[in-house]
Amino acid sequence: MAALLASFDFAFLITSVVKIVFLTFLVILPMVAYSVYAERRFSAIIQDRVGPNRTGIPLTLFGFKKDIQIFGIGGLVQPMADGLKFLLKEDFTPKSVNTFYYWLAPALTMVPALMTCAVLPFGSELDFSFLNPMIEKLGGTGFSAPVKSVIADLNVGPLFTFAIASLGVYGIVLAGWSSNSKYPFLGGVRSSAQMISYELSLGLSIIPVLMVFGELNLSKMSAFQDANGWLLLPFWGEGLTAERWVLLVPMVISFCIFTVAMFAETNRLPFDLAECETELVAGYHTEYSSMKFALFFLGEYAAMIIGSGLAVTLFLGGWSIPFWPFFEYVGNMIGLDTAFGWLGSSFQLHYSAGSTPFWLGLLHIGVFFLKVIVFILFFILIRWSLPRFRFDQLMKLGWLFMFELALANVILTAVIMACFTK
């Protein structure tokens, strides 16, 4: 037993659990809740409405004159009120449904969306060596190397993401079929056709990206872009070569195809044909209520957040700080390195394996989530700006334009790389 316990790497186990709890429960789920709030306020601004602006900490229930508005901004507690409403609502299950699959479907939508975040690098690395003296006093060995800011650093990151994300369609199809009602059934059929059609374009869109990187590890892709310029912003390192600038054309095409396919895969407007209210009442989740409906809702927003994170990692440098060579030059010139000793021997904003300062690791995490938030706002802007496609238009766009364009883009990238290799 002692030998078995000795074989366990407890430091690795503890850091993995901390990373899972941090990313899932402290970042993704709160982001899901406040994405809904942001969508309501953003759409209200677009449509010249007020939006949710009253919900606060309800002290009036206890006899006080006013509720507390956090930071003076009304409505910030609205996501918690929504969550409480879903928990307290009657959990109604129609008699006509296939009960087992009807209950399984919401979980199949939510769980794959959260599992895909395991391979997303949400930062560079965190050096916890300053904790070693305290850990050694308690009898531990401390941290021998910095901790990577990713739950599972797999060498097949994009393939893992696509494989797990594709399971989400089973939740929607099962919800449509097991409800035993015509509107959910039509929504389920539409969703499966839509997701299969756009999965081809989505997969083909990242092949040119993988050809440029030459690997499938998302952490190494982020590190490469930090050192050599982002795929869509090649302004430093090897990004200044003629080959990278010519490759910018197929990379922009890949980014556009990837983004459009992500909209279709996440059932967001203008591609929400699986649940469009004007034709199918509420589509595949017409017969759902309370927390089962909330799981569909959470799954959709979690998929949107993970999709935004993947787009940021592949095309927008991941956690890399934009134009860091320029900022480092300015910082050292004005004396930031000597003014703040805790910054280190020089003012460093770039990733250096094994020697990235702790504060810089935290800054990289902040930069990554800032980019993700901007991308989510872009999702919201498109939803409230464009009208919904017809289903035949959606199919034509996927099979007669996106697929061919993605295929031609792979060939274009190969030709450009072959020309510069010679």
From TrEMBL:
It is found in: Cell membrane; Membrane. It is a multi-pass membrane protein. One of its GO terms (biological process) is aerobic respiration. Its main location: membrane. It is an enzyme of class 7 (translocase). Its EC number is 7.1.1.-. The keyword Amino-acid biosynthesis does not apply. Keywords: Cell membrane, Membrane, NAD, Quinone, Translocase, Transmembrane, Transmembrane helix, Ubiquinone. InterPro entries: NADH_UbQ_OxRdtase_su1/FPO, NADH_UbQ_OxRdtase_su1_CS. GO terms for cellular component: plasma membrane. It catalyses: a quinone + NADH + 5 H(+)(in) = a quinol + NAD(+) + 4 H(+)(out). The chain crosses the membrane at residues 12-37, 100-123, 156-175, 196-214, 245-264, 293-317, 329-347, 359-386, 398-420. GO terms for molecular function: NADH dehydrogenase activity; oxidoreductase activity, acting on NAD(P)H, quinone or similar compound as acceptor; quinone binding. NDH-1 shuttles electrons from NADH, via FMN and iron-sulfur (Fe-S) centers, to quinones in the respiratory chain. The immediate electron acceptor for the enzyme in this species is believed to be ubiquinone. Couples the redox reaction to proton translocation (for every two electrons transferred, four hydrogen ions are translocated across the cytoplasmic membrane), and thus conserves the redox energy in a proton gradient. This subunit may bind ubiquinone. NDH-1 is composed of 14 different subunits. Subunits NuoA, H, J, K, L, M, N constitute the membrane sector of the complex. Belongs to the complex I subunit 1 family. This is NADH-quinone oxidoreductase subunit H.
